[in-house]
Each structure stands twice: as structure tokens, then as C-alpha cells.
Design goal:
Helix content: 55-70%
Strand order of the largest sheet: 1-2-3-4
Number of strands: 4
Order of helices and strands: HEEHHEEH
Shape: globular
Distance between the termini: 6 Å
Radius of gyration: 18 Å
Oligomer: single chain
Strand content: 5-15%
Length: 166
């Protein structure tokens, strides 16, 4: 469980530090090209969810996030991290990302976003480290459920060796 907490804390610290750097050094709307016509650091505040959905619905976000955090913590407590360490990593990333954006919503009633991509002239929604962790965690979770869970259940319990063992 210690390694899971390290992942959660790593995501949370990286997310909050990058947001502090952005808010301390840029103006809202300011954009700095990193790779022209592809990657920019653009300071944006999002009062909604992904892609700007549900703008201004802070009570909804508070409740939904607290329910999600509670569910993730309960799920983590029930996992056998020796056998289900991949799911443990997924849940740790989800928890770190959820906490990172939750802190923003509590403190600012919006989320600081700054990673801005453009592909073939199309500008994509701006995101942050917490969003990256949430996305990667969700992908890992889907892969685990669709492709690894059945195989894991076929392995004898005493042969499971997970990287998250404490």
C-alpha cells in the first residue's frame, strides 16, 4: 500500500507544483509555444469538467469527486496488490488525478489547465497533469479488466508477484 500512496502523492505533488508555476508566471490566456503548431503551454481556467462540460456546477463536482475518491479508496483497500498490482497503479493514478483537480475546485472554483495541443490545425481541449493521470489510469484500468483479469484469475495465488508489494 505504501507504493500506491507514493504514486498518489507523486501525481498530486507534480500536479500542484506545475499549476503553481503556471499561475505564478503566466496570465490567463497567455500561450507559450513549446513545439510550434503542436504543443503549447497555455494558461486556462476551466470551471467545468472535461471539454468544458457542466460549467459552474461546483456542487455537482464536489459531490461527484468525493464519491469517486471514496469508491477508489474502498476499491484499493480490497485489492490484493500482489495479484492486482496493475489495477492498483490504475487506481492510484485515478486517485491522484481526482485529488489534484479537487484541490483546484475547492481553492479556486475552477481547474488550472495549461497543456495545449494542436494537431493538423485543430486545437484540442487544454489539460493538466491531473487530467493526464486520470486518462492513463482509466486506460490501464480498461486494459486490466479486458485483457489481464481473466489471465490473473487463472494464475495460482502463490505465484503472483506484484511490484506494489510492501
Amino acid at each position: 500500500m505504501k507504493k500506491v500512496l507514493l504514486i498518489v502523492m507523486g501525481v498530486l505533488v507534480l500536479d500542484q507544483v506545475t499549476k503553481l508555476i503556471i499561475t505564478g508566471n503566466m496570465e490567463i490566456g497567455q500561450s507559450i509555444p513549446v513545439i510550434d503548431n503542436f504543443l503549447y503551454i497555455t494558461y486556462h481556467r476551466n470551471a467545468g469538467a472535461a471539454f468544458g462540460l457542466f460549467q459552474g456546477q461546483m456542487l455537482f463536482f464536489y459531490v461527484a469527486t468525493l464519491v469517486a475518491i471514496g469508491a477508489i479508496v474502498l476499491w484499493l483497500k480490497q485489492l490484493d496488490l500482489r495479484r492486482e498490482w496493475i489495477m492498483g497503479v490504475a487506481l492510484a493514478l485515478l486517485l491522484g488525478g481526482a485529488l489534484g483537480n479537487f484541490i483546484d475546485r475547492i481553492l479556486n472554483q475552477s481547474v488550472v489547465d495549461f497543456v495545449h495541443t494542436v494537431w493538423w490545425g485543430n486545437s484540442f481541449p487544454i489539460f493538466n497533469v491531473a487530467d493526464i493521470a486520470l486518462t492513463i489510469g482509466a486506460i490501464i484500468m480498461v486494459v486490466d479488466v479486458l485483457f489481464l483479469e481473466k489471465r490473473r484469475n487463472l494464475d495460482p495465488p502463490d505465484q503472483a508477484e506484484g511490484v506494489l508489494n510492501d
